Structure formats: C-alpha cells, structure tokens
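Each letter names a residue; the fold follows as tokens. Both lines appear below:
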Amino acid sequence: MTKAVYKIKGMACSHCVMHVQKALDSVQGIKASVTLEPAQAEIEFTDKVYTKEELQAVISDKAGDYILED
C-alpha cells in the first residue's frame, strides 16, 4: 500500500472537507483522510497510484475550486 499527503488550498470549513473527502473517496482504490487543521489529504492507494494531476482533476470535477499542493 502506498501513501501520499497533499496540502489542500481553498478549504475553509468542515463542509469543504466533506466535498474533498467525497470526491477522493469516489475513486476506486483510494482511501482518503481529509482534515481542515492542517488543510491536507492523506491518501492511501490500494491498487493504482494516481498522480497529483489525476487527483486534482477529480477534485476539480466533483468538489470545486480546491487545489492540491505538495
């Protein structure tokens, strides 16, 4: 199992966290833990390891204007 941690820019409340969490969890083979303090996502990949760009596309499409950062 591979893990990655990304900072998330643009989250301001627990509602934002819920949107990002739901978007990431919609991807098969991903288990995400999104927090507000610190604003980040810890992602476990059980199958394929997705790139930051692929994850960003999912978040932009399903959650809105949140930005993944290293």
The mean pLDDT is 97.
